[in-house]
Design brief:
Among the domains are: about 20-65 and about 230-305 and about 420-490, FAD/NAD(P)-binding domain (3-Layer(bba) Sandwich), CATH 3.50.50.60; about 130-210, Polyamine Oxidase, Chain A, domain 2, CATH 3.90.660.10. It has helices at about 1-20, 35-50, 95-100, 130-150, 160-165, 175-180, 185, 195-200, 205-210, 280-285, 295-305, 365-370, 375-390, 425-430, 450-470, 485-495, 495-510, and strands at about 30-35, 55, 70, 75-80, 85, 105-110, 120, 125, 210-215, 245, 250-255, 260-265, 270-275, 290, 305-310, 310-315, 330-335, 345, 355-365, 400, 415, 435-440. The chain has 17 helices and 22 strands. With about 525 residues, the chain is an alpha/beta fold. Residues about 1-25 and about 470-513 have low confidence and may be disordered. Bound molecules: flavin-adenine dinucleotide and 2-acetamido-2-deoxy-beta-D-glucopyranose (NAG) (5 copies). Flavin-adenine dinucleotide (FAD) binds near residues 58 and 67. One 2-acetamido-2-deoxy-beta-D-glucopyranose binds near residues 137, 140 and 141. This is Amine oxidase domain-containing protein. InterPro entries: Amino_oxidase, FAD/NAD-bd_sf, Flavin_amine_oxidase, Flavin_monoamine_oxidase.
């Protein structure tokens, strides 16, 4: 059996050669596509297990993917991931460990005074402790209900359904913005869309702790990848290893049981025994990469069922501060009649005290709208909001920065969100390899999808999958479904679709009796 595989593999190489395609590096073992946290971690995992004959193809000119900083008005701001989420709990978040290793500059985010910093179209409100208490009690109920559903093996419902069963849904502008902060602010999609059982309580906060640390480091948040990427760096931390190939946009993947051939837009072709694909869920949902043969229906279904959410931080630079400063003022909310209209605000007094920079966060449809209109139109909308919050005499903004993650063909959104209707069995299809093609990335982490630590764990998982037999035992009969510690931990909490269905059928049968 093994012999046949090797022969087929050689045949593949030969045929590529006779077609006259420049098959550089055709003898590598593994091609990793994407140099974000998951791709870099997958490479480290291979390295640690003695597999060093691999390359990493990355479309942009840098390592880091969705962890990316940019100069804005002379300061470094984070366009993508900004927080180490889940700290000071029972388990240690590996991203927090990395942050310590590089002595990343962070600050603990304190949201406890949020309800005293709510503004409406007619200015600041007095402290809103009541509204906050209502939201908190409702969220506690929502979490309790989720725990009960899971314990009973009941079907999933949306977060909104859970809120309705509490007896009231947020409806005033203030209730809506507090609700937006709690759910959309974290998952970038509204309660109507999000799965109750897979987002409440979030395993991130349950396992790693409730605290969030905001990264504000002149070297950029992506510095945390350096300790993982040591196998690619010179002693002074520069990415010098020729296995890392930047500005290589993969546009075609031919996969068989024996190997893969990966083509890039600049006309290069690479062959290998296996590939690990770490591009975002949004890219998988797009047509950027031509798969040959087409991905099977079960895979496409999983890809299309999961959600790529959009989360946008808009940075503004002013000549001077007109917002509140001092303890308990960092985060503030704008409660508009229209839910999600420039709702979450943050100043950078602690991190960049002299900068006079603030930023506002929008998500979902507002993000889509903003990505499609001019920056001037957005700025005009924002100035109108700020004037209703702080009065007409505030200064004009000097600069604005609007990341466009959704329009960017290399991302097509910000991070994945688990929508109502995707069972854990279906989720496993998102992770499952096909022939010699493996899938990693934030969206393939069953416990921590949407987060940097999810990308990190997925890189380890995909690397391990290859090592534990699937590269060395080519042509083995693959079941396809990945069983890592993380997945198993999740499965022990979450009944599988089949058992859910069984419970449902048994109940149904009982009712009939
Ligand atoms: C605005 C925003 C805010 C966020 N906030 C947080 C936060 O506060 N905390 C947190 O933990 N997480 C946050 N996240 C999520 C976090 O950034 C991601 O979960 C994580 O960085 C994803 O890593 P990854 O390796 O899975 O994917 P990516 O980082 O997307 O890496 C994939 C790589 O593949 C490359 N690529 C894409 N297409 C191709 C192609 N065709 N050929 C070659 N290369 C290609 C991309 O350029 C990219 O470098 C945020 C994300 C965004 C966008
Ligand atoms: C949630 O459950 C806890 C105990 O499990 C209980 O103390 C609390 O009152 C419940 N809260 C709500 C709002 O149901
Ligand atoms: C959860 O189950 C417990 C025990 O059956 C029950 O007391 C509680 O009311 C339930 N909570 C919710 C929110 O369903
Ligand atoms: C809460 O915010 C209000 C309004 O900005 C501020 O006056 C107050 O000092 C803050 N309280 C705490 C405890 O930080
Ligand atoms: C945006 O506004 C600035 C300043 O008012 C102006 O100089 C610029 O031409 C405008 N750009 C567009 C695209 O309208
Ligand atoms: C692969 O596994 C399935 C299920 O265990 C089995 O039915 C099938 O015969 C196997 N195929 C091969 C080629 O071994």
């Amino acid at each position: 059996m093994k012999l046949v595989c090797v022969q087929l593999f050689l045949l593949l190489l030969l045929s590529v050669d006779t077609l006259g395609i420049s098959a550089e590096d055709s003898n590598v073992d593994v091609i990793i596509i994407g140099a974000g946290m998951s791709g870099i971690t997958a490479g480290k995992t291979l390295t640690a297990n003695g597999i060093t004959n691999f390359i990493i193809l990355e479309a942009t000119d840098k390592v880091g993917g969705r962890i990316r900083n940019s100069d804005f008005a002379g300061y470094e701001v984070e366009l993508g991931a900004n927080w180490v989420e889940g700290v000071n709990g029972e388990q240690l978040n590996p991203v927090w460990t990395l942050a310590q290793q590089v002595k990343l500059r962070t600050s603990l985010s304190d949201f406890s005074n949020l309800s005293s910093n709510v503004y409406t179209a007619s200015g600041p409100l007095p402290p809103q402790t009541d509204a906050d208490a209502i939201t908190t009690a409702q969220n506690e109920y929502v979490i309790n209900l989720s725990v009960n559903l899971t314990a009973n093996g009941d079907d999933d419902i949306s977060v909104l359904t859970a809120q309705r069963s509490y007896g009231s849904v947020p409806s005033t502008p203030v209730e809506m913005v507090l609700d937006y902060f709690l759910y959309d602010g974290e998952y970038a999609e509204p309660p109507r869309v999000s799965s109750l059982k897979n987002t409440q309580p979030g395993p991130t906060f349950k396992n790693f702790g409730e605290d969030l640390y905001f990264a504000a480091d002149p070297r950029g948040f992506a510095t945390i990848i350096k300790p993982v990427a040591s196998y690619l760096q010179s002693k002074d931390g520069k990415y010098v290893d020729p296995r890392l190939k930047l500005e290589k946009v993969v546009n075609k993947i031919v996969y068989t049981k024996e190997g893969v051939t990966v083509s890039t837009e600049d006309g290069s072709t690479y062959t290998a025994k296996a590939a690990i694909l770490t591009v975002s869920l949004g890219v998988l949902q797009s047509k950027l990469i031509d798969f040959q043969p087409d991905l099977p229906f079960w895979k496409l279904e999983a890809i299309f069922e999961f959600d790529m959410a959009i989360y946008t931080k808009i940075f503004l630079k002013f000549p001077y501060k007109f917002w509140r400063t001092g303890p308990g003022t960092e985060f503030f909310l704008y409660a508009d009649d229209s839910r999600g209209y420039y709702p979450i605000w943050q100043h950078l007094e602690r991190e960049l005290p002299e900068s006079n920079i603030i930023f506002v966060t929008v998500t979902d449809d507002e993000s889509r709208k903003i990505e499609q209109q001019s920056n001037n139109e957005t700025l005009a909308e924002i100035m109108e909001v700020l004037k209703s919050m702080f009065g007409p005499d505030i200064p004009e903004a000097e600069e604005i920065l609007i990341p466009r993650w959704w329009s960017d063909r290399l991302y097509k959104g910000s991070f994945s969100n688990w929508p109502i209707g995707v069972t854990h069995h279906e989720f496993a299809q998102l992770q499952a390899p096909i022939d010699r093609l493996y899938f990693a990335g934030e969206h393939t982490s069953a416990l921590y999808n949407g987060y940097i630590h999810g990308a990190y764990f997925s890189g380890i998982d995909a690397g391990k999958d290859e090592i534990t037999g699937k590269i060395n035992l080519r042509c083995t009969n693959q079941t396809g479904i990945r069983h890592t510690e993380a997945t198993m931990a999740k499965e022990s909490q979450q009944p599988k679709a089949s058992s859910q269905l069984k419970v449902h059928l048994i109940r149904h049968a009982r009712e009939k009796l």
